[in-house]
TrEMBL record:
Residues 69-96 have a biased composition (Basic and acidic residues). Residues 106-167 form the WKF domain. It comes from Xenopus laevis. Residues 1-57, 69-98 are annotated as: Disordered. Pfam families: WKF (PF10180). PANTHER family: CHROMOSOME 7 OPEN READING FRAME 50 (PTHR22306:SF2). This is Uncharacterized protein C7orf50 homolog. The gene is chlsn.S.
């Protein structure tokens, strides 16, 4: 059967050459095929049925194979595009990652409630120590837990925290804006930290 197809391909090519160039004849037939052939990119017709349909339109087996390859490529491109779009939608639907603040507060909660399961994390501790005077980042209910956490500090972390608290206290004492609410809250927190660590 393959030999017959090859032979017939050679005979039909001669006909195409007589009527005009192959590139001129093929696009006209392709345009026809895209609209008429049921084996296009959207249908689920088998390749054999599609090739039978193409041959019924008067195309040579070689032209049918070329057209089938093109249709197959178009289907693959469409599948890839659909996969990309679905992947983009999945990314949009994912919940946002928790911020450093949220992670640090969860760390503090787990320390206070599930002390046996709790694991030390240097980055969380560092974040808490850097932002412990800011009432917006660490609310009062968490600050009370943080004071208990700080009481257990040892070594360099404890020394550094005391030094920073003393430096901040001197800085705020010498400033003129001691009536601001934020400054008053920060100074109260600094005093609490110094009392616990001293």
């Amino acid at each position: 059967m393959a030999k017959d197809k090859r032979k017939s391909t050679g005979k039909n090519e001669g006909k195409i050459k007589q009527t005009g160039s192959k590139s001129e004849a093929a696009p006209v037939k392709k345009r026809k095929l895209d609209s008429e052939v049921p084996g296009g990119s959207d249908s689920a017709v088998s390749q054999e049925e599609a090739s039978d349909n193409l041959e019924a339109l008067g195309l040579t087996p070689e032209e049918c194979r070329v057209l089938e390859r093109k249709l197959k490529k178009e289907r693959k491109k469409e599948e890839k595009r659909l996969k990309r779009e679905s992947a983009i939608q999945e990314k949009k639907e994912e919940p946002p990652k928790p911020t450093g603040c949220e992670l640090a507060l969860q760390y503090l909660k787990s320390w206070s409630k599930k002390h046996e399961e709790w694991k030390f994390q240097k980055t969380r501790q560092t974040w808490l120590l850097l932002h412990m005077y800011d009432p917006e980042k660490i609310p009062d209910k968490y600050f009370k837990i943080l004071l208990d956490y700080i009481a257990g500090l040892q070594g360099r972390a404890r020394d550094t925290t005391v030094q920073k608290a003393e430096a901040l206290m001197k800085q705020y004492d010498s400033s003129d804006d001691t009536k601001e609410e934020d400054l008053v809250a920060k100074m109260a927190r600094i005093r609490d930290v110094l009392q616990i660590l001293s």
